[in-house]
Design goal:
This protein is mostly helical. The protein folds into two domains: 72 residues; 32 residues. The protein is built from two helices and no strands. The longest helix has 77 residues.
């Protein structure tokens, strides 16, 4: 009986270190997995931050372009020479119509 207990006891002693080894190995795998997740999340975070930087740059460029277009539009709308040319053209058209009307009335009066 003592001999059997000695064998079973020895067997349990071997079993305990084996469980400890399994637990240690499990913990090592879990730590490696955790490190892998951290690395993946870090890379993902870096990619997201870079995308944010790129989008902010694109937004600034688009805002600058929009401002440039608005300034150009304002310049065109307020361009004095363009307005003066349009005004002069309108006056010339009115003068031509007035002369045509006057000639018509003179011809009608001579008949």
């Amino acid at each position: 009986m003592i001999f059997i207990r000695k064998i079973v006891g020895d067997h349990e002693e071997y079993k305990q270190p084996s469980e400890a080894t399994e637990n240690t190995e499990f913990l090592r795998r879990m730590l490696a997995l955790k490190d892998s997740w951290i690395e993946t999340l870090g890379a993902s975070r870096s990619a997201i931050l870079q995308r944010v930087v790129d989008l902010q740059k694109e937004n600034r460029e688009l805002q600058e372009r929009l401002n440039s277009v608005q300034q150009e539009r304002d310049w065109i709308l307020q361009d004095l020479s363009t307005l003066k040319q349009d005004h002069a053209r309108c006056l010339a058209d009115l003068e031509d119509e007035r002369k045509d009307k006057q000639m018509y009335q003179q011809k009608s009066g001579h008949i």
